[in-house]
Amino acid sequence: MNHSDLPSISIILTGHNEEYCIGDAIRSVFRQDYEGPVEIILSDDGSSDGTFAIMQEMAARYRGPYRVVLNRNETALGRGQHIRQAVELASHEWILRQDGDDCSFPWRCRVFARAVMEHPDAVAVASQMTQVYEEAGVPFKFPSFPAAPEGILAVRLQTGPFSSCAHYGGSMMIRKSACQWGNTLPMTASFEDDLMAFYAWLQGNIYELPETSLYYYRFAFKNICAINSAARFAGMKTARAFEKRERNVHLQLKKSKWTGLELCEDLLRSGNAVFRSREELLAEIDERKRVVEDIDHLLNWWDYPFRRRWELKGKGWMGMAHTLPQSLYLFCMVSFFKLRKVKKYLSGAR
């Protein structure tokens, strides 16, 4: 097959104040082994550190086969609007996103391209991700890449309304046309990947690679998702600081879910044609309302009496721990992670 017949891909690598890690991210996209048309857009959102200088230096040294585009915003737009702006800069058919602190496997473009060639009706394709964790005071290094996948990879059609938390921005490749739906695509400051995948779902089929990881996703302290990991307790000096951060994350997630919910309701009222049926839109409305209700419970959690927290508790020991009084819960969690860190240090010292 002629290389020009392969799907054309725009890799969008965005960064903001990430000079400590942006080099690894850039190297990972420069080392893609894909033989089709590729452009790499390195876009900095008004960083106050050396992020853009590193982008410039590495782009100047690059001697590979791909076209490299540099962009810098003098004033930060914020994550969601920055990604939307970078999508507009892309000139190829497919958009492959990467954050400035993550790492693509060398065959990421190649595997995604194979999947969309086998399924030409796809508007997006999603892989799994391998999570890696950053710890305070410990120099971070990405693990070695796993063995490249061989043979026929499992691919399945996503069924049901889009609601999977597995579809982070870094795990998906989306048609550019699906990112420009109606030219009025709403975008939130955070959890923009939820919305981008939701818009894709409105327009066509999303295929999944259920057994294939193509990406190292770093749980860094600055990440919004660090709230869901051990890193959320790193550097926490007061319960008030923890509460403020957790509340902010939940409010941003709620805004993203609510934006999708309102769009579904608007589509039902207007009768505008989309790929999804009325039944699917109604199911997605119900799902997003359920998620919003769960978020409201989290926002009000510590105001609930013990009996109510017990009724709403999650599964496992974390669910049990969350029913404790707030001060005791925080004490237990912080102590647990500090002890785990001591254990890890002692194990490494032997």
Task: Describe what you observe in this structure.
By secondary structure, the chain is an alpha/beta fold. The protein is 43% helix and 18% strand. It has eleven helices and nine strands. It has helices spanning 22-30, 51-61, 79-89, 108-118, 176-179, 192-203, 239-270, 278-299, 306-312, 316-321, 326-349; strands at 9-15, 38-45, 67-73, 94-99, 103-104, 122-133, 156-157, 172-175, 205-219. Strands 1, 2, 3, 4, 5, 6, 7, 8 and 9 form a nine-stranded mixed β-sheet that branches. Helix 2 (51-61) links the parallel strand 2 and strand 3 (67-73). It is globular. The model has no long low-confidence stretch (mean pLDDT 85).
Sum this structure up briefly.
The protein is of the alpha/beta class. 43% of the residues lie in helices and 18% in strands. The mean pLDDT is 85.
Name the descriptors.
9 strands; 18% strand; globular; alpha/beta; 350 residues; nine-stranded mixed beta sheet; single chain
Helical content band: 40-55%
Question: Biggest sheet, in brief?
Answer: 9 strands, mixed
Approximate shape: globular
Please count the helical segments: 11
| Radius of gyration using CA atoms only | 21 Å
Q: What fraction of the residues are assigned to beta strands by DSSP? A: 15-25%
Tell how many strands the DSSP assignment holds: 9
Alpha-beta classification: alpha/beta
N-to-C SSE series?
EHEHEHEEHEEEHHEHHHHH
Low-confidence stretches: none
Mean pLDDT: 85
The end-to-end span amounts to 55 Å
